[in-house]
């Protein structure tokens, strides 16, 4: 992924300032609201290029934008997948660069749109391709038929919450009756906690930092995140979306120490119970003087640990929500679906966190490789 | 409403910085993510005091916080309204000052919780009181029975989207089976556009600045916003909530000039079509050389103009949403319900904006006067 321009544009900066005003509201920040933040500014430069080797909205921007809307839809019979995706790619370029009138004059800013195709469409091309398999069923699911699976994922993220629905409306209108929406979930991320150089992560509704471990370096991303092949999917990745309602009242009744035992980390700092810094891997062998594990046997940080499960790293990019009930839209990206399925299978057995969750939607998608003028979105896969 | 401390606390400032990181993500802001924004900071000072003459979350903070959740519920039979409200007030104080464990260690920051009671409860006290009347039906409504009316409004707003659902869960747990949730709507506000000194307003999903006109000065608020009496409701106000789905695709197909004719204002700047600045009142008599009104006869800025309708000013504090479909949770506060009902009646006749909306929830509440240690929430009204 290349960034079109690593310098923030003036407009992007002013947009950021506007956000400070909206969030900060304290006396020290109040004067900033005198600065105009939208009117009569020059055409915006996208913060994250919509085109390139990889799609935007996965590793970039970092940290992830504040607002998300994920729309999962099915394709109508007889629709040309190739043409639909090419048109969506065109629209994404126009929206991201602010040249689409359907943005209603809103600034796209750090808008990203990420498109994936579901197993049914992948199998049509080749059942041996990554992304061709549906997710299995797991425990603690309460999933309506329409909220399981789907042909198309449109993941829209932006710092400006207003931009997200405008972009969704524009893309859904472009697709027209070629697609039928199955479910959607909007979500937010709060303030970010720094993890390591260039990487930070938000808290979830349980108050714990979420998404600390992941393929954060380029080398890790090559190994664990991006598909290296076969050629039609190289530069893509596999997404898993799991919408989970969280039992906040029950979790809140635990003491902080009990909550920390569930996660295996300190709530305030994200540091593993075995010590170190937030970026330290949990020391799974470390014990108290009386022989108990510092990171309990059923702690989430242990049960979901990639070395314990024996899988690669997953990039998590989850968003919290409170509509229709409080929860987490878990989103992970990985180049081997077993990274997710083996982890959740192991969590199913005894993860202390799982009983506080109920999954109400579940889907996996092949995130298409990046696109550009020569290679329309999806054109490498659908011919 | 007094602010407990007009200086931003160190923690509040760092929280703001975190927000910049989350929103900005451009290279120039990246280094800020190295600053810790939650861990090991001193106890927070609420940005807006939960107690005082008026409830928080109406005129303060200005601008309104980025995230909102409105929960509308009914009371079970036989519940002591006085005791329930007093307990909610206690919980609000604890949550707002960050001393409630159910915040899960999240910082309340600029959290506000605003509580209102519905017409049924007001009528029980005295059918002549403000807030005793249900809203009438209007056109362009598609409202399920459970989304019309309600006994209790809990409006939760915060800059940190994570805080909102945690607070909702804590308050709903405190209320327990004494209340039964009817509907909820979360919403967001994007960047704010400055209107006049100390006042700014966000855009709605149509791309137009929303909430420009209102009782912004203390004198206007005394006249149009706060109830002066009778004594049990003095310092309160009347809220109207209308959840509207917006037809974005159809509106987006209009040219910018056509969109501006619908609102009667410039989309980019918020300036009335009759000229001036965003803070200028529309000149409803101004005409083009060929005799057409600059602000068209059916423009929203004309149809909803308080002088045209013959009512007072309403304070609008609306939030946008995209779940379950894109829309606006219209929220207004006024001390005479006719300010709202007469305006909407007049809009019903011919407002150009109305055909792009469908209202899916509607309710009005008496917002209780502010409270303090000597006067628990609701204690002046319910004995």
UniProtKB/TrEMBL annotation, chains A, B:
Location of region: Disordered: 24-54
InterPro entries, sorted: Dimeric_a/b-barrel, Dyp_perox_C, Dyp_perox_N, Dyp_peroxidase, TAT_signal
Record-annotated membrane-spanning stretches: none
Domain Dyp-type peroxidase C-terminal: 202-370
Key words, A-Z: Heme, Iron, Metal-binding, Oxidoreductase, Peroxidase, Signal
Classification via PROSITE patterns: DYP_PEROXIDASE (PS51404), PROKAR_LIPOPROTEIN (PS51257), TAT (PS51318)
Essential cofactor(s): heme b
This protein's record includes keyword Metal-binding: yes
Boundaries of every Dyp-type peroxidase N-terminal domain copy: 55-187
MF (Gene Ontology): peroxidase activity
One Pfam family this sequence matches: Dyp_perox_C
Protein family membership: Belongs to the DyP-type peroxidase family.
NCBIfam families on file: Dyp_perox_fam (TIGR01413)
The name this protein goes by in its record: Iron-dependent peroxidase
Taxonomic placement: Bacteria, Bacillati, Actinomycetota, Actinomycetes, Kitasatosporales
């Amino acid at each position: 992924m290349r960034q079109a321009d690593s310098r923030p544009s003036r407009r992007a900066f002013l947009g950021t300032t506007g956000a400070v005003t909206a969030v900060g509201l304290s006396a020290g920040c109040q004067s900033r609201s005198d600065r105009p933040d939208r009117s009569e500014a020059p055409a915006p430069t996208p913060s994250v290029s919509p085109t390139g080797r990889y799609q935007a909205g996965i590793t970039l921007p970092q940290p992830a934008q504040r607002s998300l809307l994920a729309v999962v839809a099915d394709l109508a019979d007889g629709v040309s997948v190739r043409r639909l995706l090419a048109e969506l790619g065109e629209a994404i370029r126009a929206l991201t660069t602010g040249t689409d009138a359907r943005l209603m004059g809103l600034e796209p800013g750090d808008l990203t749109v990420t498109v994936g195709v579901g197993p049914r469409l992948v199998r049509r091309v080749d059942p041996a391709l990554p992304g061709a398999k549906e997710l299995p069923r797991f425990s603690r699911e309460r999933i309506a038929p329409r909220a399981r699976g789907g042909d198309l994922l449109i993941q829209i993220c932006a710092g400006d919450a207003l931009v997200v629905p405008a972009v969704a409306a524009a893309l859904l209108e472009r697709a027209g009756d070629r697609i039928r929406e199955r479910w959607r979930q909007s979500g937010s991320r709060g303030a970010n906690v720094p993890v390591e150089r260039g990487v930070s992560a938000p808290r979830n509704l349980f108050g714990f930092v979420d998404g600390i471990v992941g393929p954060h370096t380029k080398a890790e991303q090559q190994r664990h995140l991006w598909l290296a092949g076969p050629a039609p999917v190289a530069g893509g990745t596999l997404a898993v979306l799991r919408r989970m309602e969280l039992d906040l009242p029950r979790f809140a009744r635990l003491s902080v120490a009990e909550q920390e035992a569930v996660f295996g980390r300190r709530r305030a700092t994200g540091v593993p119970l075995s010590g170190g810094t937030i970026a330290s891997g949990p020391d799974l062998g470390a014990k108290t003087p009386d022989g108990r594990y510092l990171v309990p046997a059923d702690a989430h940080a242990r049960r979901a640990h990639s070395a314990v499960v024996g899988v690669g790293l997953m990039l998590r990019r989850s968003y919290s929500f409170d509509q229709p009930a409080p929860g987490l839209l878990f989103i992970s990206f990985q180049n081997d679906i077993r990274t997710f399925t083996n982890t959740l299978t192991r969590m199913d057995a005894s993860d202390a966190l799982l009983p506080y969750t109920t999954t109400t939607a579940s889907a996996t998608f092949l995130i298409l490789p990046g696109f550009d003028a020569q290679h329309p979105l999806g054109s490498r896969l659908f011919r």
